[in-house]
TrEMBL record:
<keyword id="KW-1015">Disulfide bond</keyword>
<keyword id="KW-0812">Transmembrane</keyword>
<feature type="transmembrane region" description="Helical">
    <location>
        <begin position="237"/>
        <end position="258"/>
    </location>
</feature>
<feature type="transmembrane region" description="Helical">
    <location>
        <begin position="205"/>
        <end position="225"/>
    </location>
</feature>
<dbReference type="Pfam" id="PF13853">
    <property type="entry name" value="7tm_4"/>
</dbReference>
<keyword id="KW-1003">Cell membrane</keyword>
<keyword id="KW-1133">Transmembrane helix</keyword>
<feature type="transmembrane region" description="Helical">
    <location>
        <begin position="25"/>
        <end position="51"/>
    </location>
</feature>
<dbReference type="GO" id="GO:0005886">
    <property type="term" value="C:plasma membrane"/>
</dbReference>
<keyword id="KW-0472">Membrane</keyword>
<dbReference type="GO" id="GO:0004930">
    <property type="term" value="F:G protein-coupled receptor activity"/>
</dbReference>
<feature type="transmembrane region" description="Helical">
    <location>
        <begin position="270"/>
        <end position="289"/>
    </location>
</feature>
<feature type="transmembrane region" description="Helical">
    <location>
        <begin position="98"/>
        <end position="120"/>
    </location>
</feature>
<dbReference type="GO" id="GO:0004984">
    <property type="term" value="F:olfactory receptor activity"/>
</dbReference>
<keyword id="KW-0716">Sensory transduction</keyword>
<feature type="transmembrane region" description="Helical">
    <location>
        <begin position="141"/>
        <end position="164"/>
    </location>
</feature>
<feature type="transmembrane region" description="Helical">
    <location>
        <begin position="58"/>
        <end position="78"/>
    </location>
</feature>
């Protein structure tokens, strides 16, 4: 691959989060606990949706897919980030850097589309309840999931095909704790102004557009509910507040990472950690602690597991 694109760089140097030994132990404990929570929380949601027939509805099928994507997105960076905390020199090979970038944008693109699908599901359920089962049938649900994956892969490939062929002659200091298109492009040996604009348009403006589209759709849903029956407004807002929280947590860091004109390393690091660590661990809590059906289903599944252990 290096010979094909004319690169002499075979590895990149990642940025360490801290040089303080005490802070390294603190971050190791912090990230390890959160990553364990990401794994357990999201896997538990997926298992609950699969094995509880009461949750075989479009809303929970989309939620299970969101949990899988959160787990995958976090796993692209967090395990390496934890292992690099105590490393003197954080090195990532050229191939692994390219793969990390690709999967970050595949999972990020899929999550973006899943959030749109979940907003459409809530719009149909709240604004067109009599037609919900007709519109959000199993075929439509499957179509939304497949479309999310196709768009996510297309989003990643449309940037990856340009970056993979860039020549890298040095320096190779990434200036970040993970590989991403903006940081990698700046290390190329050629003028990449046009390519930087493509990345900003692809990742940044799409994130902005999707964020405002989702925000407007939720406002429209609340206005529609208020017009029909003001007594259901608080219930609808309670239901949608979980979705709105997830949208803000996911999209705001994306917009700052790809659109912000004056990025700083500390700010970029903070927003990247929010997207890779904080959001994936909060999503299970947001969708389970505030959802009666999920809490009942999880309690039912836990009791079944305990009873099966007692029998054996």
């Amino acid at each position: 691959m290096d010979q094909v694109n004319g690169s002499v760089v075979t590895e990149f140097v990642l940025l360490g989060l801290t040089q303080s030994l005490g802070m390294q132990f603190l971050l190791f404990l912090f990230f390890s606990v959160l990553y364990l929570g990401i794994i357990l929380g999201n896997v538990f949601i997926v298992v609950t949706v699969i094995f509880d027939s009461h949750l075989h509805t479009p809303m929970y099928v989309l939620l299970a897919n969101l949990s899988l994507i959160d787990l995958a997105l976090s796993s692209t960076t967090v395990p390496r980030m934890i292992s690099d905390l105590f490393s003197d020199c954080q090195i990532i090979s050229f191939h692994n850097c390219m793969l990390q970038m690709f999967f970050i944008h595949v999972t990020g693109g899929v999550e973006m589309m899943l959030l749109i699908a979940m907003a459409y599901d809530r719009y149909t359920a709240i604004c067109k309840p009599l037609h919900y089962l007709t519109i959000m049938n199993p075929k439509m649900c499957m179509f939304l999931v497949v479309a999310a994956w196709i768009i996510g892969v297309t989003h990643a490939v449309s940037q990856f095909v340009f970056v993979i062929n860039l020549p890298f002659c040095g320096p190779n200091n990434m200036g970040s704790f993970y590989c991403d298109f903006p940081q990698v492009i700046k290390l190329a040996c050629i003028d990449t102004y046009k390519l930087e604009f493509v990345v900003t348009a692809n990742s940044g403006f799409i994130s902005m557009g999707t964020f405002f589209l989702l925000t407007i759709s939720y406002i429209f849903i609340l206005i529609t509910v208020r017009r029909h029956s003001s007594k259901y407004l608080s219930k609808a807002f309670f239901t949608l507040s979980a979705h709105i929280t997830v949208v803000f947590l996911f999209f705001l860091p994306c917009m700052f990472l790809y659109v912000w004109p004056f990025p700083t390393k500390s700010l970029d690091t903070f927003f990247a950690i929010v997207d890779f660590v904080v959001t994936p661990v909060l999503n299970p809590a947001i969708y389970t602690l505030r959802n009666r059906d999920m809490k009942v289903a999880m309690t039912r599944l836990s009791q079944q597991l305990l009873n099966s252990r007692e029998v054996t």
